[in-house]
Design goal:
This protein has a domain of about 80 residues. The chain contains 4 helices and 3 strands, in the order H-H-E-E-H-H-E. The two termini are about 45 Å apart.
Amino acid sequence: MADFVPLRRTQRSKLGHSPFQTRPPTAKLGQYRKMDLRHAAALALVGWYLIAPPMTADKKVLTDAPLSGWLIVGSYDSADACSTNLTKLRVSSEQWESWRRERTMRSACISTDDPRLIPK
């Protein structure tokens, strides 16, 4: 089966064919990149969670709880986006009650494919 490789507009005009055609035999192989579908799927699925530790009924923060039991506060496409939001949350928590502030300070960003998120 032939590789289907979308071309940029400039490449189309140079090679004189549609981006949906197979790679012409005259094109240099170095112009194209082939991405494994499993690799693409893995890249698409990896994200970041902002998680907070669970609490007891009397508002005690359970920092020793397994990560699979932590509360997912937000979901992000990148670690930077997660960290930025966590920082904003921590700054805004300075005026909150002590138990909320402690929970926020113990919160963390973690990759969605982290094996510690799987319940045991």
